[in-house]
Amino acid sequence: MQEAVIEVSKVSTRFGDHVVHSELDLEVRRSEIFALIGGSGSGKSTLLREMILLQRPDSGSIRVLGADLQELGDDEALALRQRWGVMFQHGGLFGSLTVAENVGLPLREHTGLEDALIDEIGAWKLAMTGLEPEAGAQYPSELSGGMMKRASLARALALDPELLFLDEPTAGLDPDSAGGVDELVRKLRDLFGLTIVMITHDLDLLWQVADRVAVLAEGKVQGVGSMSELSRMDNPSIRQFFDGPRGRAAQEQGKRQADTQADTKSEKPPSKPK
Ligand code: ADP
Ligand code: MG
After folding, report:
1. Is the domain 4-83+161-264 a CATH 3.40.50.300 member?
2. Which of 168, 229, 245 is nearest to 202 (CA)?
3. Does the beta carbon of 21 sit less than 6 angstroms from any atom of ligand 1?
């Protein structure tokens, strides 16, 4: 088994009287595509924010890339932040900067590279995410939803991170743009060995791209596994996801897609009947 890149143990988080996480445990392994699902308000974004040092749990420990987040000094925190990239739900690009300037920003802040080299690396990251070179000169307000997500991803990749966090990477996209994101996420893992943690409701991402999915409910992870493994679990919170009218339709759709995909996936051939 691959080593753990993120280890969350016994994490509890409260806002006033409201308990969001209650001794929650979770492990993400190197080079896997890991998804977090759960109802609205179940604490997915809060957990993600805790993993990237934007928020602290009330108790418990989180280790990321071997470092205990509670014990970090300022310099160590700064160094660690450069080893992960984050794509926020609403893009988080600076509206007053062009796309190219946004993508170059982490390089300008954290490396001593010359401008010409920064421009070149930025252009390469934009290309990696499937944007045309002309998009670099545009401002975020001029971009479509899909382009905005890609530009935000290019910025998250600027410093060649080992770990990538995506909060709802396909939310609000039309099916065509969303489909492109599926391929892109898989490509980033396959080509660069990136570990990817994403929060998503997107059934295509969950069934076709995620290696393991964790279901958050009532402050804890209720189950972890591939979607087809989860779909066979008895836990009531997990059943709720699959057995609601929407869930059932999704499950059927997911199975069909998984079957179609099994024919084309080279790394995981379908098991042969005896
Ligand atoms: P999810 O991403 O799963 O929808 P969140 O992690 O955003 O859920 O939020 C979990 C719960 O914590 C929600 O009930 C939300 O209202 C609450 N919450 C999140 N952030 C704060 C905050 N800064 N102050 C107070 N309550 C918060
Ligand atoms: Mg959220």
Report:
1. yes
2. 168
3. no
